[in-house]
Write a structure and sequence with these properties.
By secondary structure, the protein is an all-beta fold. It has no helices and 21 strands. It has 3 domains: 88 residues, Immunoglobulin-like, CATH 2.60.40; 84 residues, Immunoglobulins (Immunoglobulin-like), CATH 2.60.40; 88 residues, Immunoglobulin-like.
Length: 285
C-alpha cells in the first residue's frame, strides 16, 4: 500500500467502518466504495481535507447493505500540486456487516526445522505469528504487508516437536489485533539419526544415599543437536526419567543410588540409531 501508515479498516459491530491512513504530505483525502474489485463507478464516497492523517467513517445502512462484498479506494492529493496523487488498488471490506473480522483456514507447511504458516482473513492488516512449544507466546514472526492473505516462514524450529501458534492480522497503524486464530503443528523428524555418546565413559562410583548425575551427548555428524528427547531407564526397573538435550546437545537426569551393586542405566531416543548403557557402581556405605 502506497502510504506511510495504513490504510487500515476497523469495524464497530452493526454500526460503522472506520478507514484510516497516514500520508507523507499534507493533503486532501477521498475514499470511494465499490461493489466490485475493478474500481469501476463508485457507489458512494467521502472526503477528508488538509492533513497527513485521515479518518473516514462509513455508517452501516442506507447505501451499504449487509452480507455484501465491498471494496474501497483511497486517493490522497496535494492541493498545491507539489506532490503527485497517491492511491491504492481497491481493497476489500470485511464482507459481513455484523462486525466479525475473522481469519479463515490456516495452513502450516512443515519441515524438519522450519514451517511456513499461511492464512486468509476478511480484513486487511499486517501479519503476525506467535509460536512456541510451551505456548504461542514464546517467539514471533511478522510481515510488513497490509493485505488479507499472509504467508510467514518460521525457522530454527526443533525437529519432531509440537508447536502451538496464534496468527493475527494487525492494524497497520496502531498494531491492535483485528482478527486472530490459534492452532498447532508438528515438525518432521530428522531423516538422519542422531548418535548418543557418554561425555565421561567410565563407571560412576557412589553410595546408596548419593545422587548420580547421568548425562549423554546428542550429536549428528559431529554437531550438537538440541531439543532431542532422551529416555533414561534403569535396566530391569521403571526408575529413571526423560530429558531434552540442551543447546550444547547435552541431556541429563539425576538418580538416587539405591541398593548396593551395579546399577545399569540405558539411555535411548526415538531419534537415535544407538542405545547407550551407563554403568553406576553403588558401594556399601
Amino acid at each position: 500500500m502506497p502510504f506511510t501508515g495504513g490504510p487500515s479498516v476497523r469495524v464497530t459491530p452493526n454500526t460503522s467502518f472506520e478507514i484510516r491512513w497516514i500520508a507523507d504530505f499534507v493533503g486532501n483525502g477521498k475514499v470511494e466504495i465499490f461493489d466490485n474489485a475493478n474500481g469501476g463507478t463508485a457507489i458512494t464516497g467521502q472526503t477528508s481535507a488538509g492533513s497527513t492523517e485521515h479518518r473516514v467513517v462509513f455508517t452501516i445502512g442506507g447505501i451499504l447493505k449487509a452480507d455484501t462484498n465491498y471494496f474501497f479506494r483511497i486517493t490522497h492529493s496535494d492541493p498545491t500540486g507539489g506532490n503527485p496523487d497517491t492511491t491504492n488498488d481497491p481493497a476489500p471490506f470485511p464482507p459481513v456487516f455484523s462486525g466479525v473480522q475473522a481469519i479463515g483456514d490456516v495452513f502450516a507447511d512443515v519441515d524438519v526445522n522450519s514451517a511456513v504458516v499461511s492464512w486468509k482473513s476478511n480484513v486487511i492488516g499486517l501479519g503476525r505469528v506467535g509460536y512456541g512449544t510451551a505456548s504461542p507466546n514464546e517467539f514471533a514472526a511478522t510481515d510488513a504487508f497490509n493485505i488479507t492473505d499472509h504467508s510467514i516462514a518460521l525457522t530454527g524450529l526443533l525437529a519432531g516437536a509440537i508447536y502451538q501458534f496464534r496468527v493475527s492480522n494487525r492494524h497497520a497503524i496502531d498494531g491492535d489485533s483485528l482478527a486472530e486464530k490459534t492452532g498447532s503443528f508438528t515438525t518432521k523428524h530428522s531423516t538422519t539419526k542422531v548418535t548418543l555418546t557418554e561425555p565421561l565413559a567410565r563407571p560412576r562410583v557412589i553410595y546408596p544415599e548419593d545422587v548420580a548425575t547421568l548425562s549423554v551427548m546428542v550429536r549428528r555428524q559431529g554437531a550438537a543437536v538440541p531439543g532431542i528427547l532422551v529416555r533414561f531407564r534403569a535396566l530391569g526397573s521403571t526408575a529413571g526419567g526423560d530429558a531434552l538435550s540442551d543447546a550444547n546437545g547435552k541431556a541429563a537426569i539425576w538418580m538416587q543410588g539405591g541398593a548396593p551393586g551395579l546399577l545399569r542405566v540405558e539411555a535411548s531416543s526415538p531419534d537415535a540409531h544407538n542405545r547407550l548403557v551407563i554403568p553406576v557402581v553403588v558401594r556399601q556405605s
